[in-house]
Amino acid sequence: MPVTLRVSRFASLLTALGLVSAGTLMGCTPTQHQTASAPDVAAAVTPLPTDPDTVVLRMGEYLKTLNAFTLSPDISYDQTLPSGPKIQFLSSAVISVRRPDRLRADVTDDDGERSIIYDGKSLTVYGKTRNLYATVDAPPTLDAMFDTVLHKYDLGLPLVDILYRSVHGTLLDEVQTGVVVGRSRVRGVECDHVAYHQDDVDWQLWVEASATPFPRRIVITTLGEPGQPQYEADLKWNLSPTFDDSLFAFTPPRDAGRIKLATLNTATEPATATAGQK
User: Fold this and answer.
1) Cis status of the peptide bond prior to 100, with omega within 30 of 0
2) Rounded alpha-carbon distances, angstroms, from residue 134 to 28, 46, 85, 146, 155
């Protein structure tokens, strides 16, 4: 699936530049990479790279080695109202992953609570606020499940660009220009700050500048929508989680309504369309 990094209400992975202007990025040639000066890189664990792709690819290779982790993003995202004002909403999530075949994402935002649960056999989306759920058969591995969901269903997965596309080396597929902005700290952690431009999206990553190159922050700006809304997430990681199998199992609550999960490029009934809602 082409990488678009579009912002959705589900906050998939998968979002103005503070140190480099949008005009600077737009002025690069498709293969050009620019490096912004950093005020002090002497204390950094790793040298500041000159090529932004190095940062992204190194991050992806590292994430491949993680067999079990919990990712807890603090998220903000914009929506432009029909009347004109751009409004910022807040969201948080706890994403639990155990390779090769377990995932649970619990998301809380201004609209309510919802969960996405994958147990190696099926994928369930449950909206707690409306007490509605949808369950579909799923392939037996996380990678195959992500691929199926992205191609078949009208469903956004939280931070899918970090959890799937970066690991498979496709995060850079449609970028036109990239830049190493420099060094900065995210929650006290020294990070390499890189930024990219695509046809309709600008996106930035802050990746820990150490032997454990975690993505620590992501910002996505959607250029083709009114007000150029942004999606921002600060990412917290736990590599020593304690998981019980019951975490990845779903039992419908009493009186929960079952609905169908909408598929892409398919007309849906009103009830079907609510599968991605709260």
Assistant:
1) yes
2) 45, 45, 34, 17, 11
Phi, psi values for residue 270, rounded to 5°: -55, -40
- Tell me whether residue 250 is in a domain: yes
* 3 state SS of 223: coil
> How far is 10 from 262, CA to CA, in rounded Å?
15
Which of 88, 79, 12 has its CA nearest to residue 225? Answer: 79
Which CATH number is 96's domain given? Answer: 2.50.20.10
| Helices of type H across 153-254 | 160
Q: What is the pLDDT of residues 32-88, one digit of tens each?
A: 333 333 333 334 468 999 999 999 999 999 999 999 999 999 999 999 888 889 999
Instruction: Give dist(CA 259, CA 252) in Å, integer.
Output: 12
Residue 245 burial by Cβ neighbours in a 10 Å radius (0-12, 13-18, 19+): exposed
Residue 85: Cβ within 10 Å count: 9
User: E strand or H helix at 191, and its extent?
Assistant: strand 189-197
17 within some domain? no
Domain count within the chain: 1
Q: Is residue 145 part of a domain?
A: yes
232 is a domain residue: yes
User: What is the extent of the structural domain holding 197?
Assistant: 22-266
Q: Tell me if the pTM is above 0.85.
A: no
